[in-house]
Amino acid sequence: MSDDFLPGLDVPKNAARLKSFRADYESRLAHTSWKVKQGHAKELANGLCWNCSNPTTAFEVHHRTYARLWHEREGDLVAVCADCHRNLDRDRVEKMERFLEECREANSIDSLCCKKYGDDPQHWPIDAEERAEEWIDDKRSQGEWE
Ligand SMILES: [Zn+2]
Q1: pLDDT digit string (tens) for 11-62?
Q2: Which distant-in-sequence residues (6+ apart) come within 8 Å of 143 by Cβ?
Q3: How much of the chain, in percent, has pLDDT values that exceed 90?
Q4: Ligand 1: distance of its center to the CA of 75 in Å?
Q5: What CA–CA distances, in Å, run from 63 to 44, 49, 125?
Q6: How far is the CA of 81 from the centre of ligand 1 (A)?
Q7: Could you tell me the distance, in angstroms and rounded to a whole number, from the CA of residue 139 to the centre of ligand 1?
């Protein structure tokens, strides 16, 4: 399979876990319920790319978020033209890379809190560290890198 599988989602690094993650992904893509969701997104598009509004018949279905992967709500999936799909996915990968780079630079929860709440820990919310950790976990699990 190509490297563009779930682009912008922080998938497992461990080889065995990644293999089973991919197998699960493949089988879900093959499942009827996925085809129904894809079809629905394409119907809603009404012939126009969600991103550039150009008419197209060659729709691809893009995940705007992975927050509800395989349990998507309407609006999580949009039908786009192939060019926009590539661009949207590339943007997400770039955001992920920037974010992960920032995490590496931050090097600790404390420095992340400094970034989010300012340099003085006295002005941080009482649960700043928990919030920072949750924030990172959410980003990682949802593929949302804004
Ligand atoms: Zn487009």
Answers
A1: 777 788 888 888 888 898 899 999 999 999 999 999 999 999 999 888 999 9
A2: 6, 8, 9, 10, 63, 65, 66, 67, 92, 96
A3: 32
A4: 16
A5: 15, 14, 33
A6: 4
A7: 26
